[in-house]
Q: What sequence folds into this?
């Protein structure tokens, strides 16, 4: 499979959950509370794509295969897309564009405050995701700005954890995955390169 | 001349359905039952009940049976909404016994049949409001709790009634986890328990309760959030002190003992000002929540002088 075909395949796979949701909303197959079903579904996928996007760099560090980096921007943008749809679903389907109620929620309900902060942290990353913006900002500044993804991910997991009444196991699994993905980044890459060399049977 | 005095909790015009539709409801129920059967869902067939209809909630637009029996919170079986219907198939509600004890002259262990047989079952249509800001309207079948309590002859020391749900991790899988402090416990103040609106329920939509809705015996307190209406009850105790209740034990800052439906008392997780009526679909806004779920004129006097913000 060519690199381009692979990219298109990943794109379509990433879009599939959204397609499933739109189909369910149109068909009315999401149960008696479709607004809630839509909020939950989009939030789940935003969190999943955020973790998948954050797994790309550690994957390169661990395997030494640089080509995985080609998918990082697309996966990050999908995380933003699902987060944006999650917020849209909440504002439009759930709150029916009642901005006063939305504002009251953001101010009064801690899990919504935290979730909104996570989303706001992702906005500048999506805006500066283009090649042109990367050039305009300069590599160092762009990199520094994009470290915002770490607090955004921590806030996103916290948002999910705080939202649950009881039975927080799933949120803790997301938290554990995020902790591993962040911890790998703290280990200098050369350690992994050395470990790979030692494990390589050809002894290159 | 016939003078009809309106009951204060009678539906508002915005809640009314056409009389023709209402009178035809049994056909709808039958039709939805048929479509359920056609879908070959693994639901055990429920037995029809013999009951009298009443004027409670007459004219309220009743929620679809399928919505009310497929969208449930029953943490003993599952944490998601369709889980209880899917995972409660192994639960056998009958035979069933209820232990009655505490401050009463006639304690004892009673068979389910023995508890119910002496009473006339009646159907009442009540609004049901979950603390998670969704709601439905259900035709429950049961007996006023006060009638049932009378035969146990509670003493003057009985200030509260405490209820417990079955504890059986073999058939209630989530009881093997520490999600909540099992068994599920609930309680009412004696005057709340004896209030004529409080119902001990054995059926809904003309039939025995499905497992996921709390078979064979559950409480319905229509002016309180749904978690007060404890399901699959195995014990009733008359006590002097306010009993511990499960959600309040789990998170006392968010869930109080009273848990009265109140649009002005904010919950940290959900605004209680409005609610999503199940089945309203995507193009209907949430409805305004009514104080005490629309039953204020009947029950507000129970809470006169109480600070709603503190005793929530």
A:
């Amino acid at each position: 499979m060519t690199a381009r075909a692979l990219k298109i395949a990943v794109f379509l796979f990433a879009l599939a959950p959204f397609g499933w949701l739109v189909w369910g909303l149109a068909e009315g197959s999401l149960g008696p509370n479709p607004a809630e079903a839509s909020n939950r579904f989009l939030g789940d996928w935003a969190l999943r794509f955020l973790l998948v996007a954050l797994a790309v760099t550690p994957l390169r560090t661990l395997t030494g295969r640089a080509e995985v980096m080609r998918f990082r921007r697309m996966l990050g943008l999908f995380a933003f897309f699902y987060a944006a749809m999650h917020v849209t679903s909440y504002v439009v389907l759930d709150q029916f564009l009642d901005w006063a109620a939305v504002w009251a929620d953001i101010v009064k309900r801690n899990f919504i405050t935290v979730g909104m902060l996570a989303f706001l942290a992702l906005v500048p990353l999506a805006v500066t995701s283009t090649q042109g913006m990367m050039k305009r900002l300069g590599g160092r500044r762009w990199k520094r700005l994009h470290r915002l993804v770490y607090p955004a991910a921590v806030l996103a997991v916290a948002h999910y954890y705080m939202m649950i009444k009881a039975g927080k196991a799933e949120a803790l699994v997301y938290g554990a995955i995020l902790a591993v993905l962040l911890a790998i980044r703290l280990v200098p890459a050369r350690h992994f390169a050395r470990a790979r060399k030692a494990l390589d049977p050809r002894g290159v | 001349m016939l003078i009809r005095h309106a009951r204060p909790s009678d539906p508002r015009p915005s809640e009314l359905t056409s009389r023709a539709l209402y009178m035809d409801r049994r056909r709808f129920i039958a039709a939805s039952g048929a479509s359920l059967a056609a879908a070959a869902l693994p639901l055990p067939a429920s037995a029809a009940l013999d009951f009298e209809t009443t004027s409670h909630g007459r004219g309220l637009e009743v929620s679809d049976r399928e919505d009310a029996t497929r969208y449930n919170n029953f943490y003993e079986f599952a944490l998601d909404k369709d889980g209880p219907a899917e995972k409660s198939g192994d639960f056998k509600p009958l035979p069933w016994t209820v232990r009655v004890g505490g401050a009463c002259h006639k304690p004892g262990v009673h068979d389910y049949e023995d508890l119910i047989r002496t009473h006339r079952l009646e159907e009442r249509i009540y609004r049901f409001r979950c603390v998670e800001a969704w709601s439905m309207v259900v035709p429950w079948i049961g007996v006023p709790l006060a009638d049932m309590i009378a035969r146990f002859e509670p003493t003057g020391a009985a200030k509260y009634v405490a209820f417990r749900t079955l504890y059986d991790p073999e058939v209630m899988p989530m009881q093997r986890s520490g999600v909540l402090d099992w068994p599920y416990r609930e309680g009412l103040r004696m005057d709340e328990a004896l209030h004529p609106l409080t119902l001990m329920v054995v059926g809904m939509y003309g039939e025995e309760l499905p497992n996921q809705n709390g078979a064979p015996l559950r409480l319905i307190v229509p002016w309180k959030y749904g978690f007060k209406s404890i399901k699959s009850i195995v014990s009733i105790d008359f006590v002097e002190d306010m009993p511990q209740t499960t959600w309040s034990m789990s998170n006392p800052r968010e869930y109080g003992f009273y848990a009265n439906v109140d649009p002005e008392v904010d919950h940290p997780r959900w605004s209680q000002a409005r609610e999503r009526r199940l089945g309203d679909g995507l193009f209907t806004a949430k409805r305004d929540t009514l104080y005490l779920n629309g039953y204020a004129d009947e029950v507000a006097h129970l809470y006169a002088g109480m600070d709603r913000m503190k005793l929530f």
Summary: The two ends of chain B are 44 Å apart (CA to CA). Residues 18-30+43-303 of chain B form a domain with the Sulfite Oxidase; Chain A, domain 2 fold (CATH 3.90.420.10).
